[in-house]
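JOB MANIFEST
job_type = single_chain_structure
chain_count = 1
residues = 311
[input]
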Amino acid sequence: MAENKTFGTNPICRSIYTADPAPMVYGDTLYLYTTHDEDELINDFYTMFDWRCFSTKDMVNWTDHGKIFSLDDIEWADDRAWAPQCIERNGKFYLYCPVHKKDSGMAIAVGVSDSPTGPFKDLGYPLVDEGDWNDIDPTVFIDDDGQAYLYFGNPELRYVKLNEDMISYDQEVGVGRIPMTVESFGKGSHMTGTTYGEGPWFYKRDGIYYMVYAAFAAAAEGEHKNEHFAYSTSTGPTGPWVYGGVLMEEGPCFTNHPGICDYKGHSYLFYHTDELPGGSLFHRSVCVAEFKYNADGSIDTVEKCDGVNAI
């Protein structure tokens, strides 16, 4: 998939349309989970049936592991194989995936596997199912004290504190809701009046909690905005969040989805564009850019790029 041994060109995959990148470092390998935009659209809308996995040891040469989980594996879902994230705990791999529940709204499924490349097996029921459309784009993180968090949401940012089994949470505590304030997420044009839109990516680095997300800038009446990346930080896993600024400017594609990781001493931001031949808002392609943190943990705006160097 890479054209030479020293530089990996964007988009990473050129044989199919991929979107919603979710990197996971395990051992000496970076695994990248994506959604898959089908070539042929149904009803001129996002047509997505399965999730894919790619891996690399040098950021240039990628192995395509193909389809690792699909709607066919989830009996209670019928559509919308949207943005996932995978995490390992106690030798098991958990793939959190938003799907459309039959005769209902969006819900979050979990696929479980003994291998990062699957195959993944569905629990047989949704992990999070509030009966509305907010339960999309899950992002998962295990804190230093062992507590795991699953954030998700559009238009609101919500979360649950996962039990150690990673497939349940305290139903009495239920779903937590983050206050959607301008102080936390900046002034924007999404439904809550903030920039926060969807696609949260939650992690911790050097004692700082980060929430990176697809965002909508403030807009004049009648003005159309595409998604850019913004980020907020906190000193605690559930906030209060403080808006940090723009991470990546909006591009020609309406959607975007961040995925961030550190790998072999380098920091990477994954995103998607519509730049492959035939690309569109429904035919996207995953890309990656290297970036650096400032001394105080802040991040300057990251430019879209042609690719990254081998490591």
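[summary]
The first strand starts at residue 7 and ends at 9.
The helical segments are 182-185.
exit_status = 0
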